[in-house]
Amino acid sequence: MPQTIDWSRELASLDGRLVAADQATIPATDEGLLRGDGVFEVVRVYRGRPFALADHLVRLEHSARNLRLGVPIDRLGLERRIAELLERRDPAGFDGALRIVVTRGGHEIVLTEPIEQHPPSIRLALVVYAPTRILDGVKSLSYAANMLAGRIARERGFDEALLVTPHGRILEAPTASFFWVDEQGLLCTPPLDDHILASITRDRLLRLFEVSERHCTRADLATAREAFLASTTREVQPVACVEEQRFAAPGPITREAQAKLTRLIADELAA
Ligand SMILES: Cc1ncc(COP(=O)(O)O)c(C=O)c1O
What we know:
β16 and β17 form a beta hairpin. Strands 7, 8, 10, 11, 12, 13, 15, 16 and 17 form a 9-stranded mixed β-sheet that branches. The longest helix has 19 residues, at about 250-270. The model has no long low-confidence stretch (mean pLDDT about 95). The protein is an alpha+beta fold. It contains 7 helices and 17 strands. It has 2 domains: about 5-115, D-amino Acid Aminotransferase, Chain A, domain 1, CATH 3.30.470; about 120-270, D-amino Acid Aminotransferase, Chain A, domain 2 (Alpha-Beta Barrel). The structure holds pyridoxal-5'-phosphate. The site of pyridoxal-5'-phosphate (PLP) has 12 residues, from β11 and α5. The site of pyridoxal-5'-phosphate has 12 residues, from β11 and α5.
């Protein structure tokens, strides 16, 4: 179950003003709220240091441009406001996440959030989903379909959804990329031209491993040896099953991916 956030402890930067997160308000007329017309990012923060912040801000900028949001993304200003927010939230080093939101109404919101505790492995249900092509290259606020997919999976007794097109192509989870190990032992992940998100964690794993970017069908899944999800907040999360098909969780390559990603994160934060 998604955890309920105790917002009273969290802080927000709202249009550059620091406020308690549960006191941060924007007008109800903002189209970001009324139509999900806006962009966002979630950044992991380790002991006060945001991981891959530059990549997240570049993706935020691309999202805003592709969406024709009409609101400039002030990257340098955002970096400054994030540093101040993190220092105020916990001078000893905040461990958690940052949510950055820019709305069509022109509001910039940065929230600190506790990190959701993900279980050591996850059980996935296939949920049919057709990507909205017009939103390619946009991490938009319109996430209701992704959230619904997760609820449908949980209604069926699983933990999370694995999105599959009506034509049988396996894509990603609602908030994570999907990797599998094929029968030859090669690590594979669906290509970005399957209209999935250009995940920053996926990008890091592609730097660390030889990865085959190829379409994933149900037949590929049937012969897979291992599978895992990858995202900013999950890092590498072993998949215990997809529907009735079980995997070792973690299998050897998944374990290696966990270890290598942990090392890469530590190295980048230390640089
Ligand atoms: C649809 C989707 N795919 C993949 C991811 C993983 O992306 P990242 O590694 O940048 O967190 C996310 C993250 O929220 C997502 O929403």
